[in-house]
Amino acid sequence: MTDGAMMFKQRQRATWSAGKWDRMAELIVPVGQAVLAAADLEPGMVILDVGTGSGSNISIPAAQMGAKVTGSDLTPELFDDARRRAVEAGGEVDWVEADAEALPFPDNAFDRVFSTFGHMFAPRHAVAASEMARVCRPDGQITTSTWAPEGSTGTMFKTLAKYLPPPPEGVESPLAWGIEDHAREIYEPLGLELTFSHDTNYVEFPSASEQMAFMSENFGPLVMAKAALGDRWPELEADLMAMTEEWNAATDGSVRFPQQYLITVARFKYPHGQVRPRRHARSIAPAGYPCATDEPHPCRRRGPAGMAAAKHHYWSMVQ
Ligand SMILES: C[S@@+](CC[C@H](N)C(=O)[O-])C[C@H]1O[C@@H](n2cnc3c(N)ncnc32)[C@H](O)[C@@H]1O
Predict the structure, then answer these.
(1) Residues in Cβ contact with 179 at an 8 Å cutoff, skipping those fewer than 6 apart
(2) Pocket residues for ligand 1 (CB within 6 Å)?
(3) Is pLDDT at 307 greater than 50 in this prediction?
């Protein structure tokens, strides 16, 4: 990992533990419901929520639905709220500190892998995707939500970026995950095929100034920007208020703020019984999923030679 990516992750942790993510998460509960609905979740399934935050959008509702849930996040400071919420909701979740780019779980461990606006903040998209694919069972699926770059939240992040130093080298834009072609570029080499749906979440406040006050107190990126900008903060605040007015769907002085997002469902496209390609050298042909040809096949070998053989074998079968 480059120093830039490492620095970015340290900053991410500081950012999301600033403010009060748990309050922010309440605004996007309907997104969690839409993502769960897109995932064909069944009771008893073993699931992973990557970048779970305080758990209220995927981990806890999935536990309430009878799934066996692991909620993982780079920012364990958020787990106090997560634990409290899980107890209140009566859902059992295993909370694990974990970077999306180095998930501390075995291959093929989960029936469903989720992320609502979490994995998108890992700086190296292909690395995070390959980790999520590695821990997902071959017959499982990865379901995520990401902000649309041209939507209101995308615009908010871009406005914010104008006031802050550029991200370090080697850090990909989180908003790229909201572009279908980018998601295809990242996932397809892993043998995944994708389906997409676009939706809008609405956030309501009595007025634009109340929305601004709520956001600058609870939303980590704004809390950090306010602290860093000092005298320039009112300028950013005015820009964000103007942006809110532009997007506002209410006409009575209140705010109904549309947040456009993309749901991506990724499933392995190899036919049952054939090997799936891996970017990781760790598991090439998982037990129970032997390749369709004679044994022993080179793609059952571990390490880079096995990986290359597996990829070659896979592509020769599907093309
Ligand atoms: C916008 S919050 C979303 C939280 C949660 N999924 C939700 O819907 O409420 C982004 C989350 O991603 C986490 N995150 C950022 N970078 C990460 C990484 N590299 N690995 C895992 N989690 C990360 C943050 O700590 C934060 O909890």
Answers:
(1) 149
(2) 9, 12, 16, 21, 25, 28, 50-53, 57, 73-75, 78, 99-101, 116-118, 121-122
(3) no
